[in-house]
Amino acid sequence: MSLRSLVGIVILVPMMLFAGLFALGANLPIPELGRDYVLRLILPDYGAEVDLPQIYGASDETRPLVVVDPGHGGRDPGAVGEGVLEKEVTLGLALALRDALVRQGGVRVALTREDDRLLSLEERPGIAQRLNADLFVSIHADSAGEFSEVSGASIYTLSTEASSRAAARFAQRENSADELNGLSFEGQSDEVNAILFELSQRRVQDETAGLTSLILREGAERIDFHIQPRRSANLVVLRTPDLPSILFEAGFVTNSEDAARLTSEEWQTEFGEVMARAVRVHFARQSTN
């Protein structure tokens, strides 16, 4: 074989391999993160500001506005279970919550995404802030890797210190999603993070703690919660000064029972009703105060 032929093989074979992966949208397993990420060779430009979503529910603009954020999407599937993708679960749950809020009335609601698109971590709460929202609810599911027995939902609020090692791992995985999916993400400095956290401490911390209690109360007989359902971590999507924000981690896609619930339309409807009830009581309390 000539040198020219050898060089051609060395160059062409990897190019053909990557082209094939791109065309098929092949998943590359990253077991350390408990999920698969889709390889893409051409990345869109994420410099432009995303369009604001439609607002559903009450036409009265004085009514409180909830922005619901289905985690992941597009080429980022999130956590991956046996035939279950986090991005599909979160969208189903977000739509169920939107429908329940509209049905129960008294509030307005918008979704950061209503289809299979990818948003950066900063764009998600950014949409809520641009809409002057009164509450931001990000919905996720988790992966426990080989520990398939781990199950149950939990609720995250912002903290500079994680409530547990599991919470710290979850935050690290979620905060790195942009980098792993080719988005331009420049983290804030520690000083800026400290300022943002301090600004969000007082009123917002009280509100998110109260909302967490309401969700746990309303869902006591209807949602299977983790043995430690209250969690805190320094999550990018919760760094929203003056905007009460929670992350609802609905369960583990790597647990067969959780996965069956998360993909069930009946359970998604139940989830929506529970969350909507808690949110409406939360706003009723705020208006009284």
What does this structure look like?
The protein has 289 residues and is an alpha/beta fold. The protein has one domain (53-288): 3-Layer(aba) Sandwich (Aminopeptidase), CATH 3.40.630. The chain has helices at 3-24, 86-104, 123-130, 165-175, 177-180, 190-218, 256-262, 265-288, and strands at residues 27-30, 35-38, 56-57, 65-70, 108-111, 135-142, 153-158, 225-233, 245-252. It has a 7-stranded mixed β-sheet with strand order 3-5-4-6-9-7-8, sandwiched between helices. A two-stranded antiparallel sheet has the order 1-2. Helix 2 (86-104) crosses helix 8 (265-288). It is globular and about 45 Å long. The N and C termini lie far apart (82 Å). Residues 21-28, 35-46 and 178-185 have low confidence and may be disordered.
Q: Could you give the topology of this structure?
A:
Blueprint: H1 3-24, E1 27-30, E2 35-38, E3 56-57, E4 65-70, H2 86-104, E5 108-111, H3 123-130, E6 135-142, E7 153-158, H4 165-175, H5 177-180, H6 190-218, E8 225-233, E9 245-252, H7 256-262, H8 265-288
Parallel strand pairs: 4-5, 4-6, 6-9, 7-8
Antiparallel strand pairs: 1-2, 3-5, 7-9
Helix pairs in contact: 2-8, 6-8
Offer a quick outline of the entry:
The chain is built from eight helices and nine strands. It has 289 residues and is of the alpha/beta class. It has one domain: Aminopeptidase (3-Layer(aba) Sandwich).
